[in-house]
Specification:
Shape: globular
Helix content: 25-40%
Number of helices: 14
Radius of gyration: 20 Å
Number of strands: 15
Oligomer: single chain
Strand order of the largest sheet: 5-4-15-14-13-12-11
Order of helices and strands: HHEEEHEEEHHHHHHHEEHEEHHEEEEEH
Distance between the termini: 41 Å
Amino acid sequence: MATALVAQAQTPPKPLSPADSDPVKMGWMVGSPPPPDKMVKLADLSHFRFPQIRWSFANMRQIIPSTNVARGEGPVAALPHAERTDLDGVSFTPLGQTTPMTWAQSVDANYTDSIVVLHKGRIVYEKYFGVNTAATQHISNSVTKSFFGTLGAMLVEEGKLDPKATVSRYIPELKDSAFGDATVRQVLDMTTGFKYSENYADPKADVWAYARAGSMFPRPPGYAGPQNFYEYLQTLVKEGEHGEAFTYKTPNSELMGWLIRRATGQTVGQALSERIWSKLGVEREAYLMVDTGGNEFAGGGFNLTARDMARFGEMMRLDGRYNGQQIVPKAVVDDIRGGGGKAEFAKAGYTTLPGWTYRDMWWVSHNEHGAYSARGIHGQALYIDPKAEMVIARFASHPLAANANIDPTSLPAYHALAKHLMKAD
């Protein structure tokens, strides 16, 4: 399970380089059966350990139970190819550094698995590494949240969820939990107050208990804790006041999934398929990892191809209209782009995201291009730059979870590429 954005960088020993950690070179899961030292498993947590993640992130369905998100019956929406040879040389200066770096160097430095860049709806850059291909369904980690945040915002727009209503109105089981008096809007914007730590570098952090409850991480012998994600949500206790500050905590997204289920009478995967996925003209079905209760992992379990994630981003760039139809109401897209409360976000202390905010489970830059992003640990990203008419879909398996380790060589690279594409028009 990989869903958090840890604010501070981690500093473990220097990991293997992108070339030396290539999963094909390392031979993970090759053989009949693979040798014991080349197996990647849930039972020993190797599926969430570097360098094994360079294989497992592209093969989560072989490790954890999952369910399909249907693509529907329609034809594939074309993504015209117009590849360019000048993008690898685009130069920028990483955050906090003085030595320039090229786009190609940043792609390598971030342990990229797959990357697709769209400009005006055409593929201008597309590369795959390791075991990844155009058909690979890669885990998106917390990019998942933006899909379900968008879906939640759609239900608000339709009147099926009241943003001012408390969670307990829809889910009475949470009346006595931390979320009982939180509003739907506070859940969507992650301004809820509850006791929880999401630092993957700390084995005692609450995120580990959350992952064990959902069976995304192995359970120790004699485990007697919550048996699924929804049982875990019921154990959380309030800390502080709702609405005072943005604090990134994955259980909010899990809760949004539960709210979506109550509002639609469908599983989150069914709701996502019906309202968004089946309308995009995607190339492949996607899938969601599930816990032992069959609950889909709305906090970070969505697996899809890079091209299909780019299609979702292009739809958002085009005010919610794509493949000949209005998929997401323009009012929802406008609400996301407008961002959340700056004062509330600033309290979180993200040093690589000054001036940013969070709205409907999207990260909003408020830069001169109006860029906004879906983000997941270990380098997953969907970056939308409306002014440059650019969308970047990236999957990665960086050795460090926190985006604070990846932002310095990613965010300025995205902006430099956007400006380059605008000049070349």
